[in-house]
Amino acid sequence: MCKNPRVFRHRECQGLEKIKTIGDAYMVVGCLPVQRRHHASAIAEMALDMQTEILNFNRKCHESFAMRIGIHSGLAIAGVIGTHKFIYDRWGDTVNIASPMESHGVPGRIQVSSTTYSLLQPSYCFECRGPIPIKGKGEMLVYLLNGRKQDGICTPLFDLPFEEEV
């Protein structure tokens, strides 16, 4: 059996908060319970790390799993549900746009809204996917997050070397 011992530590080191799982979807936010300045970068780092891990798993185990990841940035309404076991939930336009960023995305890729693109563009590499229809919003321009920029040079995720497990 192929196992990957690496654990995503983003909640602790990036200040991200898992909201819930919905079927096979995993909802994470970057400004809860405390606002943070670089929430979009923290989410982008988690998304890139997740895609890197699935690529490494596929290479090592000769599999072909793929994740679609969607990111949108904006204001949302948050609430705490329950009196004994508290859980967060999020509602609002931001969630209603983030969801189709994932569901209308490309397997194995990270799709972001133009809002998120404008926040991340100085430090990350993108390709324009073009407009896609979003229910209740019409056509929205979206981008695919390809990797990080270092010293102005793009390092695409798909060009990264395979990581051996230690």
Brief rundown of the structure:
This protein has 166 residues and is an alpha+beta fold.
Report on this model:
The chain has four helices and nine strands; from the N terminus they run αββαβββαβαβββ. Strand 8 and strand 9 form a beta hairpin. The N terminus is likely disordered.
Name of the CATH class: Alpha Beta
Structural class: alpha+beta
Beta-sheet strand percentage? 25-35%
Number of discrete helical segments: 4
Largest sheet: 5 strands, mixed
H/E element sequence: HEEHEEEHEHEEE
Radius of gyration: 16 Å
Distance between the termini: 16 Å
Features:
single chain; 166 residues; Alpha-Beta Plaits; 4 helices
Write the layout of secondary structure elements.
Layout: H1 10-14, E1 17-22, E2 25-29, H2 39-61, E3 69-71, E4 77-81, E5 87-91, H3 93-103, E6 110-113, H4 114-120, E7 124-134, E8 138-150, E9 153-156
Parallel strand pairs: 3-6
Antiparallel strand pairs: 1-2, 4-5, 6-8, 7-8, 8-9
Protein name: Guanylate cyclase domain-containing protein
InterPro entries: A/G_cyclase, Cyclic_nucleotide_synthase, Nucleotide_cyclase
Domain Guanylate cyclase: 9-102
